[in-house]
Amino acid sequence: MGTASNRHSETGPTARILSSRRAFGRVREAFAGCRDGEFAAAYADARWRTVGLRAALSLVDRVLPMTPMVQFVDEVSRLIRERGLAEGCAAGVRRLGLDCEFVLSEDAASALRASPVLVYGNHPTVLTPFLLAAAARREDVRLLMLAYVRCLIPSIGPYLLPLQPRSDRDWVEYRRGGLSRVVARRLARAVFKSREGEAAKLANLQSLREGARHVARGGCTAIFPGGGGRDEATWYPGVGQIARELRASSGAREVFLLPAFEEARSEAHVYAGLRRLGAEREPERVRVRFGEPRRLVDLVDAGDDAWAVTARLQADFRTLCAGVHP
Hints:
Elements: H1 4-7, H2 20-33, H3 38-49, H4 52-63, H5 66-83, H6 85-95, E1 98-103, H7 106-114, E2 117-121, H8 128-136, E3 141-146, H9 149-152, E4 160-163, H10 170-177, H11 179-191, H12 197-216, E5 220-223, H13 238-247, E6 256-262, H14 267-275, E7 284-290, E8 294-295, H15 296-299, H16 306-321
Parallel strand pairs: 1-7, 2-5, 2-6, 3-4, 3-5
Antiparallel strand pairs: 6-7, 6-8
């Protein structure tokens, strides 16, 4: 008889044990490939056929529901591929046991779903971009999101304008979202090679400019200038950069700015949904409230710099939040 290692197949319950280093290498390769199903398969294989990595990922799951998250994002990618962006995102949110409610006037709905529009707002959970895509109900949405999201959800690639992750210190990540956010960012850095320094700034500027050009062509671009998490007190100037680019274009008079506020949610709600994935339960309500659309030329002056525009848009956004969320 042969040994277990040469008579067992590479996959399935009788597959041979892999070294953690080799399994992790396969996970990184699958992640970088950005192809549907490959990362989820490599991750599941690593959990099944290693000893050290399986134990490490089990510890991770106690802080961050990584295993159900991998399963979930693989399903969301399939839903977007099969149903389109809006319905795929809405179906993914429902899979977490959340019921979407979008509060917006007729004017806001018209701007969101049919006009050249820049949507901006808070980003308390990883679901925020998907909620906005579901609310917009249009396929020409472009979402400014961290570049590695397209490796997790390959079918979102055509809708994503990639941003290189900032190399913030762990205490900044902890302040924004607690230990789970620190763990999530470290895992992302372990499997995704991002650009650094000036190369990252240039790549991000190119994505911001493409976001502006997309709106100028009649599309919808969404950006989350707070950076995500609990602490979004200081907005990054990317939203101001896009607005300035649009103000300089000849069609700016037809462009709208639309603030969006995701209410009373945190990553804890998302993680709870992931840990109960597939279980029967009463759905929880998740609400996104939109402000009134404002014409770009009424809110942005031609001589403003990106920081001045960002400060004005943040003040306008706080008006929307007033009386809704303390």
